[in-house]
Amino acid sequence: MCHVLIIEDEPFIAMDLQQLLEDQGATSFAFADTEDEAVAAAMERRPDVIRSDVKLTKGTGPAAIHTIQQRLGEIPVIFITATPAECESCDPPGVVLSKPINAHAVCAAFSNVWH
After folding, report:
1. pTM exceeds 0.90
2. CA-CA 20 to 30 A from 100: which of 14, 27, 84, 87?
């Protein structure tokens, strides 16, 4: 079983990612489009993998992930963002992919961090 937290402020991208990750073996999902929602979702159920954008409706994905990992420990992260340079100094680091989404790259990254 693999529970994935998708932190994404664009609903269609979130749905596409859900389908891609289901095809790769993810079994359940939580969704958030703000920093606070992401932290709350992770506290409700610890994710096995986090997929995050950088810029959100309110706050940032890296800030949410930092808070989540301070509270829950290390969790694999895949950033998919239109601003990959903003992930160069992300703490914690993760796999960084650029938008537009490349399905093959997303699947390969998920396979590397989960399997």
Report:
1. yes
2. 27
